[in-house]
Amino acid sequence: MEIKDIKYSKIKEILNAIFNPNDPYKSRLDTISHLINDINEIFSIAHYDGHIDKNFINNLKKEFPTSRNFKQKHNIDSRLAAITDDKTLAEFLHDLKCDDKMDLQTKRAIYLQILCVNRPINTTSVKWDYIDFQKEIWLIPANQMKMGYSHQIALSSYAIKILKEQQNFCILDNGFVFAAFNKQNHLHKDSLNKVIINLNNQKYKGKITAHGFRATFCTICSQNKATLLQMGISDEVIETALAHKESNAVKFAYERDRATNEQLKRLMQWYGDYLNNLEPFPF
């Protein structure tokens, strides 16, 4: 169809067919939101080029509730699924270790995600240039970070082993740690969730996500706060490890470092040891 002939009501009809209001767990509202954004980009170009007089696509957002509001209305926890108890976490680590069907590169990426508590996109798109094996540091540039400034990760001995193992078996040499034959040239972030869902006959479907391991880390740190304080690790150090932005705007404007490299190193090594005690790593 010519874009000038596409009517608001027609697009709304198509999106209504996608919306599932009867199952709050499968509403597809996130998909609808993504579709509206994609369609809006096309209509914006047509508007700027003079093919249409008005871009009405953004108004479609008013036709549907947000995913968060829809879940709240149905009393559903809108937070990403995460394991927060040691027993289930130990089971997951055991099942991950014993899985012999999973692509080994993807398995290493999951282990790195668990150990370094990054956002999944930062894990899958990491480049070898970001890794300093000598200083045991992973530095993510500002333009790769959600909050807009660079983030430094202290690598535990376990994370170092994973990276060196991946270095030995890396198939492609395109600069990415988890190189792949796709348009991004690296492992897609959704690949982590797909293999997690399928692990051990979908045992963990709805119970954990790749991003949820950040919540796992935060919960374990909270449960062991007394131990961490004795090690000189405060809440600020934990927040720094998670790359959370300071909520106080004035403090954020002036503050540069909330934790030393040594504190971060102690924290991430302690966390790696904690997980290894639950279920020994295979490396």
CATH superfamily membership of the largest domain, which one?
Intergrase catalytic core
How much of the sequence lies in strands comes to under 5%
How many helix segments? 13
**Structural class, please?**
mainly alpha
Shape: globular
Task: Give the strand order, joined by hyphens, for the main sheet.
Answer: 1-2-3
| CATH architecture designation of the largest domain | Orthogonal Bundle
Gap between N and C termini = 56 Å
CATH class of the largest domain: Mainly Alpha
Radius of gyration using CA atoms only: 22 Å
Rounded mean pLDDT is 89
- CATH topology type of the largest domain: hpI Integrase, Chain A
Q: Tell me the number of strands.
A: 3
| Fraction in helix | 40-55%
Order of helices and strands: HHHHHHEEEHHHHHHH
| Model regions low in confidence, pLDDT < 50 over at least 5 residues | 247-256
Counting structural domains, the number is 2
Tell me the major beta sheet.
3 strands, antiparallel
Family: Belongs to the 'phage' integrase family.
Keywords: DNA integration, DNA recombination, DNA-binding
InterPro entries: DNA_brk_join_enz, Integrase-like_cat_sf, Integrase_catalytic, Integrase_recombinase_N, Phage_Integrase
Organism: Campylobacter gastrosuis
